[in-house]
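Model: You mentioned two targets. I'll fold them one after the other.
Researcher: Yes, keep them separate.
Model: Target one:
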Amino acid sequence: MSSGVKSLEEFSTPQGRASMKQVTEELSVLDDSYNASPDATLAALDLLGEMSAGTRIAVLGEMRELGAWSDELHKLVGRKAASAATHLIAVGEEGKKLLEAAADQGFPSAAMWLATSARDAQTTTQDIVSGTAGRCVVLAKGARFMHMERVPLGLSGTHVGCSLSVCTKYIHCQDCPQLKGE
């Protein structure tokens, strides 16, 4: 076997970049929380939609730095989420546009939530997962500023002690001195 093939076999994606974690037998988390562009979010939703699970939860933080196209791009993602997820949690002010677009596609209002922070989204996600029987897959995706990694960290049993709704530190919460394991 060549060293290149061996390197590829041993390669794992960096934390928060399309990494799949099996939390329990019934719960998988697709952690693509590092950042979000519209194209990357649509691709992540495609992947979520292909997952074999009775419950597919999209936890989507707002996308940033989209300029005049922000409203339309958030709506585009909301329409896609309506076809890929069974539950939708939008995080941040721009998340309202995601939810409106999903509702316009017939997504049930009882399966949609607006969270003010990733930490709040993690709590809502945990409540959904706890009330679900069968296989469940959670996708966490959003702008770096939103710290969406708090969702997969929390679902994996690691509590982020920080109470900030958003954080101006552009570090992964895993590296934050306020992180506490539970």
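Model: Target two:
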Amino acid sequence: MQKVNSMTKEELAHYGTLIGEAFAAEGDGIATTAPREDIIKAFEIMTEYFYNSGVLYTTSDNHEGFLAYWRKSTKIKLKPALHMVGRMLREMSFRSVRIVAGSSEELYAKVYKKEKDYVAVSMVVVLREYQGKGYMKRILEHPFSEAEREGIPCVLDTDTELKVAKYTKCGMKNTAKKQLKSGQYLYTMEYRED
């Protein structure tokens, strides 16, 4: 994994769109509760946010997959967050903004609030043309290694039982489940070295 730190706005928009298309193509979960074009736009905007926040990583110069993660102790930068919200309100329907905001509840933050620190994965995606080739496990090795070194858990939220199964196959376990207002479920996953 390498940190993404030298993309143009055009490249960010291109890869953000590909990330959104990968999420929208899954055909279930939260991605089905808003129009496809708004889901794609939301991920394009979030990709820019993660980049501007300094937490976006990619597999290689070929960009087979992407990861956004930080530590509980990381201070969130206000300017990129406000920019993200502003773009969503301007470029997406209000209904879709509400759906995206409602699905990004960060259940893991509530479940692990007593932990001194943790590695929080906010986005992990393998682009569609590279799926089924083992990239998901390779992507997750990066935050898992940091969690192991520090003796803390690595956590993330996901929205379908299929994704729960994929993360379980990568070494995570399901630690919480909550039904959202949309009727969809949010699952918290944890990786912790035994």
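Researcher: Noted. Anything on target two?
Model: The first strand starts at residue 2 and ends at 3.
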